[in-house]
Amino acid sequence: METASIESKGAPEDAPAEALKASPKEEAPKAAKIQGECVKDVKADAVARLTNKLTDVMESDEIEASVQVRDFADLDGDGASEMEATVFPYASNMEVVLYLSNQGCAVYAGDFLASSIEASSEKSEPGAIKRVRTWTKGGCAGLEGDFETYAFDGAKKMFVGAETISCSCDLTKDRPKECPTP
User: In three state form, how does the secondary structure of the chain look?
Assistant: First the structure.
């Protein structure tokens, strides 16, 4: 179904409806749609996934009490925020479970170990899911660790590693510009 898109360009109020319809070039890019089972309760799903993963580090009731669900940047282009569920089982890094809003049918999209996670600023193709980027601390007072970029793999229906930039404790070597400095 086509919808009219009216922008404030000074069109007269009595302009014909056809004149107000968006041309194909002005239409918003189509959002990505992933086939899969809708997750009805993101927190419950994340708790189950994290309990399976972290039983050697945390008790299941501790995981359930600690998981926080928050909005995350729109990655799939549907105009709705994605959801991230996080828990901190380690001193500096957290476990993150990411769900795409998927046009109203939330789907699991992957999990990450990271100190921080963000939507990549890289441009993506219309209809493509944006990449995510993580920083995972490794030591040396936050100077050592890895920046990882993940791309969505449509066949696997989840994010997979695409690029890693490693930062060592050795400050005498040439460090990638992305690495933290003292």
Answer: CCCCCCCCCCCCCCCCHHHHCCCCCCCCCCCCCCCCCCCCCHHHHHHHHHHHHHCCCCCHHHHHHHCEEEEECCCCCCCCCEEEEEECCCCCCEEEEEEECHHHCCEEEEEEEECEEEECCCCCCCCCCCCEEEEEEEEHHHCEEEEEEEEEECCCCEEEEEEEEEECCCCCCCCCCCCCCC
Q: How far apart are CA 46 and CA 73, in angstroms?
A: 18
Place of tokens 């920083």: 135
pTM over 0.90: no
User: What is the spatial distance between Cα 149 and Cα 163, in angstroms, rounded to a whole number?
Assistant: 5
Residues in the chain, overall count: 182
**Cβ contact 146:175 at 8 Å:** no
At 117-171, the pLDDT tens digits run 999 877 667 678 999 999 999 988 889 999 999 999 989 999 999 999 999 998 8
Is 149 in contact with 120 (CB distance < 8 Å)?
yes
Residue closest to 131 by CA, chosen among 67, 82, 168: 82
